[in-house]
Amino acid sequence: MSFAVPKPVPRIRFQDLVPWIVIAAGASSVLAHDWLAGAAIVLLGLAWCLLRESEGPPVLAFAFSFQWLQLSLGVFYCGIVGRNVPTITRSDYRPMVMVGLVGLLALLLGLYCGRKLVRTKPARVAWQVPSFAFNIRELLVLYVASTLVAQLLLDAAWHYPRFTQALVALANFRLFFLFLLLRRLVRPRLEFGPFSLVVVGEILFGFTSYFASFKEPLFLACLALSEAFDHRKLQHWLLLVVLGCVLLCCGVLWTGIKVPYRRDFQSQEFANSRIDRLKRISELSSRWLDKPLPQKLIELDKMVDRLWAVYYPALAISRVPADVPHENGAILVGAVKHILMPRFLFPHKAPLESDSDKVFRYAGVKVAGAKQKTTIAFGYVAESYVDFGLPGMFAPIFVFGLLMGVSYQWFRAQIHHRDLAIAFVTLSYWLSLYLFERSWVRNLGLSITTIVCLGVGTILLDRLLLAASGKRIVATRPRTGSGVLPAGAGFGIQRPLPPIPSGAGPGN
Fold this sequence. Notes:
Layout: H1 14-32, H2 35-50, H3 59-81, H4 86-90, H5 93-117, H6 136-157, H7 164-171, H8 173-186, H9 192-207, H10 215-228, H11 234-263, H12 268-271, H13 274-289, H14 293-307, H15 311-319, H16 330-339, H17 355-363, H18 379-388, H19 394-414, H20 418-433, H21 440-468, E1 472-475, E2 491-494
Antiparallel strand pairs: 1-2
Helix pairs in contact: 1-2, 2-3, 2-5, 3-5, 3-20, 5-15, 5-19, 6-7, 6-8, 7-21, 8-10, 8-20, 9-10, 10-11, 11-13, 11-14, 15-18, 16-21, 19-20, 20-21
């Protein structure tokens, strides 16, 4: 099946961005009364210059930006809005923000260099396959079916601990088909009604979970829109602002109602009934809306402080090495060993240490843990500091970014249906890279499991669709001047050649 290829959205040139970055950095430093705000803006602008995409949404830039937000949000909120949060008053946050900015710079350089190491051929051959692998009806069926299957996989994940990570990763195929659907609803033209219906349905569905599961669909909606975003059109800016406001309101609302809502999960009947949970959410939301504005602002402060993932890392940096010695790589080595021993091959492997226990050991404060069905970490950057100190802590962060950049570019070249390739890298690398507060062991474990499970599944789906359409892959030997073989550069998609008629030849 063939579909029209949407026209590319005009891109802003690098040289056009530089003056705006400088102006924004200077204005931020003045408004926030802190040079850290200006430094953070420069880093963010550099990320959007280095991680731009010629095809698909700039998922690496988006994921990096969310980490940047978790590191620097409080600097802007407290400096510009003028409201203090506990992190400001109860910790020395500035050293952690400075260390974190350099850590994110190391990650950024790793991602950039990793993508440059894998050279890919321009996608002139890739467009010989259909622009979209599925039509809209097929996507709707796959989306609904994957949603039902995902619930079964998540239920099974906790009954089969050897395969928990793999089953949870496979359940993310629901989000894979959700993104494909959202992308089809904005390209080649925006279908505002159906798009809004899907997003609202996902928000309601996500609010009925124990955790804030509405976040991922909203982020995927923003990513889908970003690919078709045209900075010259006012309606695109308005839609972007609306989505941002919806995300902000959902976050503040969740902060205000999650404690009583989660308490109700102690009832098995409530936990097993999504209808009861939806009714409870509606009731709690109505109560929250009736609260006075000062109370809502307090809950906004709580959300900002929760999202600004600096408090526990700041405490850890103040205690290491003054009170607690550096680990000399023990945290990272332990994480790698844990990843290299999958539980389905090593069923008697020791259980993973709670991140909350690490927070107590290095930051010196007790936090909610397994008994409260949650875990609190101080993030891979702080763990790298505890492991190696300055400046050695930045080396593993750079290597992690390098490997993620290499794998990102490699997978883009191996999947020939461009919408499948874009959906895979968007979902997998968003889930793998967007959290600043995730520990090394969970960062590595989730990244590898998600990328491998979804990557293998997407490549198989890509090959099955090619086989069904009668196309075949033809390998050629590309010529490169550097001696580096461009991943996927010699693979094209061609239709089988028709048989040569009898008597045909060069002279006929």
